[in-house]
Input
Amino acid sequence: MAILPILTAPDPVLKKKAEHVEEVTDEIRALLDDMVETMYDAPGIGLAAPQVGVLKRIIVIDVTQEGEEPFAYKMINPEVIWESEELSLYEEGCLSVPESFSEVERPSVVKVTYTDEHGLAHEIEADGLLATCVQHEIDHLNGTLFIDHISRIKRSIIMRKLNKMKKSA
Ligand code: K1U
Ligand code: ZN
Output
């Protein structure tokens, strides 16, 4: 297993659309394991393959709380097949936009289909933080960051801060 470097905005890879995974191979399983290790190391509650420079439709998520048994979803080709009309606001962060947070409004509940690391198909109904996180990660697969959901002025403040941080690093 390995901890992978995480790309940060404005890296152009983060704006690209990731490709459908045709076959679940050992290489895909190794990538999923590396992504889980990278997510825990960051630390984060989710990670999408484009954030580690791999343009494949793969995400990992663990929204369990401290004291609970950790559980990492490993999702290949995740797809939202239904979303609630009801919306929820959540203050989101992103490992590719370090040290910045902003409220984003998204559907409160979503139904998601995906393939697991054994090639088995699943359908889950997600609410709360899992619903927010799975939508945030699927956005990454389509080249969208949480800052694309906020006002232009807030986005430019965050990007200026990020560019300053990168310059002084
Ligand atoms: O995709 C990512 O960049 C990971 C991101 C996921 C996310 C956070 C909040 C709302 C939606 C999606 C993160 O994990 S940012 C870090 C974070 O939220 C966190 C880190 C440590 C403990 C608890 C949360
Ligand atoms: Zn993110």
